[in-house]
Amino acid sequence: MARTGPATSMTSRTMKKRVLHDAWAMVCRQMQGLEDNALAITTVLQEVDEVSAAWTHRLA
C-alpha cells in the first residue's frame, strides 16, 4: 500500500482533536484581544476621571 502522506492518513479522531484544538486556540486569542481592549478602555476612563477631577478642582 502506498503512503498517502500525513494529512490524508490522519484518522477521523485525530482530525477531530486537531479541529477542536485549533478552535480552542482561536477562542483563546479572541479572549486575549477582549482583555487587551478592556484594559485600554479602563486606562482611558481613568485618565478621563483624572482630567475631570483636575478641572472640577480648578473651577471650584
Describe the structure.
By secondary structure, this protein is an all-alpha fold. It has one domain. The protein contains one helix and no strands. The protein starts with 11 loop residues before the first helix and ends with a helix. The relative contact order is 0.06. The mean pLDDT is 88.
Radius of gyration, taken over Cα atoms and rounded to an integer in Å: 25 Å
Helix content: over 70%
Residue share in β-strands = under 5%
Shape label: rod-shaped
Give the domain tally.
1
Distance between the termini: 88 Å
| Unreliably modeled segments | none
Mean pLDDT: 88
Largest sheet: none
Task: Based on the model shown, name its key terms.
60 residues; 0% strand; rod-shaped; mainly alpha; 80% helix; single chain
Quickly describe the structure.
This protein is an all-alpha fold. The protein has one helix spanning 12-59. It contains 1 helix and no strands.
Strand and helix layout:
Elements: H1 12-59
